[in-house]
Design a protein that fits this description.
Blueprint (H helix, E strand, L loop, with lengths): L5 E4 L9 H16 L3 E6 L11 H11 L9 E2 L4 H13 L3 E4 L3 H13 L21 E4 L1 H8 L5 E5 L3 E5 L1 H4 L4 E3 L7 H11 L4 E5 L6 H11 L5 E5 L24 H11 L11 H15 L4
Parallel strand pairs: 1-2, 2-3, 9-10
Antiparallel strand pairs: 4-5, 5-8, 6-7
Helix pairs in contact: 1-9, 1-10, 7-8
């Protein structure tokens, strides 16, 4: 297999695992096993106001019931304030991050003007030259400064193991994205990049809804001198209304009275055959590891 494989599953305790999140958990676990690697769990509880008391422990129990047991200690984002601050300080020292004083209303107004001029609705870099008397609210990455300093192309290209060739002009399609939010909480982009680097993650397997984040994370990885993992984005599980199942739209927590039934549904979403009716959970997982290896032979 070459390079040592380290994968991860990173749930957020803003709710319990549902059918969609089990697909991502199972896929990341199977990919790690098929590569003979390790599978880690990271609790993305950095957005503390939205976290539900007891949800993290229940998520661990849900994973264990499905036979998905992580390797090593769980990493908790809520305990990594100093690490994230050090990463931001590193970017500030190089002139690649700047304070932003724009309110949500300011940004929406600027985006409305951009759309009226037939430009993409991205953050227009209002505070890049300076705050102009406004108090600092958030911190943003100066995407263009990073690309110019490191000699990076304007278009970030990468290959998804399932979706194929991908590309995005982060500066034009996203703009200078947030690293630390106006409420003082760390932004997802910074936390996930720093943590993937700290945990030595070599392969990221996650839901397709996160595909659009990848180019930003690659730029940030390059800015922080971190390696870029291999990516595979799994199919989304849709609700009866055709929208992605999520905690935000009321997805129901997994019913694990019959864990094999829940796992079979997740396996079907991943184009894997159903387990034998009399199979145990360990037997089903062992079979799916072989099926996954045959289906995804790419590195």
């Amino acid at each position: 297999m070459g390079l040592r494989y380290v994968g991860r599953f990173a749930p957020s305790p803003t709710g319990l695992l549902h059918a969609g999140s089990l697909v991502a958990a199972l896929a990341s676990w199977l990919d790690a096993r098929a590569h003979g690697g390790s599978w880690r769990v990271r609790m993305e509880d950095v957005d503390t106001p939205r976290c539900i008391p007891g949800a993290a422990q229940t998520i661990f129990e849900q994973l264990a019931t499905c036979g998905l047991v992580p390797y090593g200690a769980v990493l908790w984002q809520s305990q990594r304030e100093a690490t994230y601050q050090a990463a931001l300080d590193q970017l500030i020292a190089k002139g690649w991050a700047y304070p932003c004083g724009c309110s949500r209303k300011d940004i929406e107004a600027a985006q409305t003007q951009a759309v009226a001029r037939h430009h993409a609705a991205v953050y227009p870099g209002t505070c890049r030259p300076g705050l102009n008397g406004k108090p600092a609210r958030a911190w943003r990455l100066n995407v263009q400064a990073v690309q110019q300093a490191l000699g990076l192309p304007a278009i970030t290209e990468w290959t998804d193991r399932r979706l194929g060739s991908q590309q995005q002009n982060v500066n034009e399609e996203v703009g200078d994205f947030v690293l630390r939010r106006a409420d003082g909480l760390w932004a997802y982009q910074l936390a996930v990049v720093v943590d993937d680097g700290a945990q030595g993650i070599t392969h990221v397997v996650r839901g397709e809804d996160l595909t659009d984040n990848t180019a930003r994370q690659i730029v940030l990885q390059q800015a922080l001198g971190l390696p870029t993992p291999s990516y595979l984005h799994t199919p989304l599980v849709l609700g009866t209304n055709g929208e992605k199942l999520s905690k935000q739209n009321g997805a129901q927590a997994l019913d694990l009275h019959q864990p094999l039934a829940a796992l079979n549904a997740a396996a079907q979403a991943l184009r894997l055959p159903a387990a034998a009716p009399d199979a145990t959970v360990p037997q089903a997982l062992a079979q799916w590891v072989q099926d996954w290896a045959a289906l995804w032979q790419q590195p």
